[in-house]
Structures are given as structure tokens and as C-alpha cells.
Design brief:
The complex is a heterodimer of chains A (about 400) and B (about 100). With about 400 residues, chain A is α/β, with parallel strands linked by helices. Chain A has helices at about 10-20, 35-45, 60-70, 80-95, 120-125, 140-155, 185-190, 220-245, 270-285, 305-310, 335-345, 365-385; strands at about 5, 25, 50-55, 75-80, 105-110, 135, 165-170, 175-180, 255, 265-270, 290-295, 295-300, 315-320, 355-360, 390-395. In chain A, helix 1 (about 10-20) runs parallel beside helix 6 and helix 9 crosses helix 12. Chain B is of the alpha+beta class and about 100 residues long. The chains are: A alpha/beta (about 400), B alpha+beta (about 100).
């Protein structure tokens, strides 16, 4: 039987980590992730898990220790935020390239400067091309569910890729909600045993990790990574299907909300999608046909599937919680990927797609602002010409 | 040499499944200076053998016999550590010239 508890997103993630009972966790505290590893360290101290908890002097060392342990054949997890992920950056590439299925929770937080501890997505978006899978969570429940699924996804023999599970710093990491915690044994059964392909500790079959790899082999190894990421969508969906069968909650590459018969739609990730759903219900109550698409999987980016779900709309707005500085019109990464998706897979008759950058450094976004975006979209749907590609939602002029 | 494998046939992650494959790699190819042993001075104290980072000092029956030039990169650590100055570092071009004479 499941247990229903009042937990914030960090505590829910720590519960998932306790049930997963990884061999090794190497982590360094950083706001707003700290609580997750702090709660977990209590589980270690209380003997509730068998995990070797490696306390390190920095996130660069945390990820390095994770790489070493995963290379040895251990099931490895960690967690970070913001500057911590930035400091890990070099080694995150090593983890992905050595095909080590490390699972990491990221409580999304803005990057310095000026220094800021609150939510935006610039930390993980800065690491969006490092070869990790990225899954975003709307609520503490989703963060918990995604952590458990991430183990199966990462360790799938066709993938062997590290996975980041993201949730909004403070907004969900520190917001207490009702969270369903499954039976320990049910989680254990779901994730199964991990059998590493090349455990360094197997002295009967010694292998070399991280050898020099020049122009004669490096390209082939990168091509293999591309292949694995290409297979990830199928694996994510298969794991989600099994999760749904056992735990009765449905997940996909993204979630659509009242989108099928909508005329205009917003695309937004994580906790803001929850706010947007309230606005959708409110507008639907007034007979306005609006809908929502909430990406769950950002890496690999399911462009074709998302465009397919959006192609009947008359106008689309993407809400980006980060800026790709210097990119086309300084738009956000979600918009840029989706716009490219429309170019590749969209209908011949162009649908106007615009971007709204919002919530940087934890700036709050409310239903009124989201309602205003739907208003803009309805005007855009009728005249078809956007005034501008990128709008800043909630910035003081 | 057989044609190198394509990406579908290689082990993932850059892993090398065969142990000790560095044996086949001619790391001596980029050497600029090579060690030369003066056997008259050498006492076989094996300081060079202990310090050589490439296991390129050859020893038989406890006696220093010479260098494995297929793997020696010419770093000169052996010459630095030798307490009786029995090892000299000689330029490759010079050594090659002497060899042909």
C-alpha cells in the first residue's frame, strides 16, 4: 500500500533515493538542492540505506566521484543546483561519454551574477548539449515519480546514459504538497537490479576506461552517443508504460492539457504549467478554446511529436524560463528547439510561434500574466503576424 | 593492418575490452632524446627501473640490461635519477646518425 505524506520536492526526492538505495551518492550542498541530500544523509546515518555517502569538497569532485563509482559498476546518484551544476559541467560530459547511468536531481536555480538563489532554468539549459537526458517535473509528486523512472531509463542496456531530473528550485523543492510514496518493495521491484556492462571491479575481465581517443576513434564514439539518445524516447515511453501499470500514473514525453480542440496553446515546463492549467480551466469556462503542452522530456527533444500535437493550433506561445544569450532574438532554448521543430516537421501553412521569457531569478508569474499571453495569442491567431518574436513577461520597463 | 571497426561494432563509452593493449602502441615514436647506457658505470641499483613512468627499463636476473625503445618516450627521468651518471640523453637525430655509421 502506498503512503500519502506531506512532503516538499526535496524531501520527496530524498524518499525516492532512500527507496532506490543506491550504492554510492557523492554530493555537495547548494541551495535549493541542499535539503534533498541532507535528508538523505540522515537515512545513511540511521542505517536505513546501504549507500556509501561521499562528502566532497566541490561539485566538480562530486561528479568526478560519481564517475569513478559508476565506472566501478555502482548504482550512483547525486543532486545539485545552479553554480553547482556549472562547476560539474566538465565532468558531466565525461559521465555521458563514458556511458555511465548516473541519476542526478537538479533543483533549478538561476546562475550568477548577480547572485541569486531562486528559480530559473538557466542552469540545466546551460548543460543541454552534454549528452544527458533531461526530465522536468511540475510538482513534488512528479519529481518523486521521475526519480524512480530515471533509474530504469538510465540503466537500460540500449542507453546507459546519465539522467537529470529537474524541478523548480524553491517553487517545488520547498513547497509541501501531498505526495504518494509507494511501498519500498514495489519501488525495488520496479527498478530491479543493475548489471553494469563494464564494471572496473570485475578483475576477471579487466577493461580500460577513458583511454586516449583521437581522430581515428573519437567520432565513432560520439556517433554511438547520438544513437543511444535517439533510442531514448522509446525507452522513456516503455518505462512510463510499466510505471503506469504498476503505480497508476501516466507519463509521456510531454503532457497535453485541453489541447485537442484548442485554437491557441502555450508550451511551458515545470511548475508554471500548473499555474497555466488553472488559467486554461478559467478561460475554457468562458468558452475560450485554449490549451497547454507541458514538455516533460527536454533531452532528447521530442520535436516531431510536439509539433504533431500542436499543428492544429492557430498560434503557439512558448514560455521560456531562461535566455539563450546571443541566439536568434535572444530567445529561450525551448522556443529555439520548437521553432526548429516546426521548420522540420510543421505543416506547410506556417503557424505563428512566439516566445515569452519569464520568471528569471525567481520572478513570480501569476495567472493574470498567463491569461494575457492567451489574449496575445488570440489576436495573433486572427491577424497571423506577431509584433515581435520575443516578449519579456513581468520585467519592469 | 585490418580495417578499423565502425561505430556499430565498437564497445561503447570508449572502453577498451582487451587489457594491456598499450603494449602494441609505439609510444617511442615521438621521442626526441633517447637514453644511452654506459655499462661500465652502471651498478644495477635499479633506481631507473623504479622511476621509469613507462616501464621501459629492461632488467634480467636483477641486472639492468638496457631500454625498451619501442615504448620509451625519452623523458630523461632515468638519467636524472641515476646516482652514477651511467645514463646519457642523446638527440634522436644524432643517435640515428651514429647507428648508420
Amino acid at each position: 500500500m502506498s503512503d500519502y505524506r506531506a512532503l516538499d520536492g526535496n524531501q520527496a526526492v530524498a524518499e525516492a533515493m532512500r527507496q532506490i538505495n543506491p550504492d554510492v551518492i557523492a554530493a555537495y550542498p547548494i541551495t535549493p538542492q541542499t535539503e534533498a541530500v541532507q535528508v538523505f544523509s540522515q537515512f545513511v546515518a540511521d542505517g536505513q540505506v546501504d549507500t556509501e555517502f561521499v562528502t566532497v569538497e566541490s561539485e566538480h569532485s562530486a561528479m568526478s566521484a560519481c564517475v569513478g563509482a559508476a565506472g566501478a559498476g555502482a548504482r550512483v546518484m547525486t543532486a545539485t543546483s545552479s553554480a553547482g551544476l556549472a562547476l560539474m559541467w566538465e565532468i558531466t560530459y565525461v559521465a555521458a561519454s563514458l556511458r555511465l547511468p548516473i541519476v542526478m536531481m537538479v533543483a533549478n536555480r538561476a546562475l550568477s551574477a548577480p547572485i541569486n538563489i531562486h528559480c530559473d532554468h538557466s542552469d540545466t539549459m546551460g548543460a543541454r548539449d552534454n549528452g544527458w537526458l533531461q526530465i522536468f517535473s511540475e510538482s513534488p509528486q512528479e519529481a518523486y515519480d521521475n526519480m524512480i523512472q530515471a533509474i530504469r531509463i538510465a540503466e537500460h542496456p540500449e542507453l546507459l546514459l546519465p539522467v537529470m531530473v529537474n524541478q523548480d528550485g524553491f517553487i517545488t523543492s520547498h513547497a509541501v504538497e501531498r505526495v504518494e510514496i509507494f511501498d519500498d518493495s514495489a519501488v525495488k521491484d520496479f527498478i530491479g537490479e543493475y548489471s553494469p556492462r563494464y564494471p572496473l571491479l570485475n578483475v576477471d575481465k579487466p577493461v580500460t576506461f577513458g583511454a586516449l581517443d583521437f581522430y581515428d576513434f573519437y567520432f565513432e564514439h560520439k556517433r554511438q552517443q547520438v544513437e543511444a539518445l535517439g533510442q531514448a524516447k522509446e525507452v522513456i515511453l516503455a518505462v512510463a508504460a510499466d510505471f503506469n501499470k504498476r503505480f497508476n500514473r501516466s507519463y509521456g514525453l510531454f503532457e497535453t492539457y485541453r489541447l485537442d480542440d484548442a485554437e491557441v496553446g502555450i508550451v511551458v515546463m515545470s511548475s508554471t504549467a500548473g499555474t497555466a492549467k488553472v488559467v486554461v480551466d478559467e478561460l475554457r469556462g468562458r468558452g475560450v478554446k485554449v490549451g497547454l503542452l507541458k514538455p516533460r522530456v527536454f533531452r532528447p527533444f521530442p520535436a516531431e511529436e510536439m509539433v504533431d500535437a500542436l499543428k492544429h493550433l492557430k498560434a503557439v506561445a512558448v514560455l521560456d524560463r531562461s535566455v539563450a544569450f546571443g541566439a536568434m532574438q535572444n530567445a529561450g532554448p525551448l522556443f529555439l528547439e520548437l521553432a526548429a521543430g516546426f521548420q522540420a516537421y510543421g505543416p506547410a501553412a506556417r503557424i505563428p510561434v512566439v516566445d515569452y521569457v519569464f520568471g528569471l531569478g525567481g520572478r513570480d508569474i501569476g495567472p493574470t500574466q498567463i491569461e494575457a499571453v492567451y489574449g496575445d495569442l488570440r489576436r495573433l491567431a486572427s491577424d497571423g503576424r506577431p509584433e515581435r518574436l520575443v516578449t519579456y513577461l513581468g520585467v519592469r520597463e | 593492418m585490418a580495417k578499423a571497426k565502425g561505430w556499430r561494432d565498437l564497445p561503447i563509452g570508449g572502453v577498451i575490452e582487451e587489457a594491456g593493449c598499450a603494449r602494441d602502441l609505439n609510444t617511442g615514436a615521438w621521442r626526441a632524446f633517447r637514453p644511452l647506457l654506459d655499462k661500465a658505470k652502471c651498478t644495477s641499483c635499479l633506481q631507473c627501473w623504479m622511476f621509469c613512468p613507462d616501464m621501459s627499463v629492461e632488467v634480467q636476473d636483477g641486472k639492468m640490461t638496457g631500454f625498451d625503445l619501442y615504448h620509451c618516450k625519452g623523458c630523461g627521468i632515468c638519467a636524472e635519477t641515476c646516482p652514477v651518471d651511467a645514463i646519457a640523453m642523446v638527440g634522436e637525430a644524432e643517435a640515428a646518425k651514429e647507428e648508420t655509421q
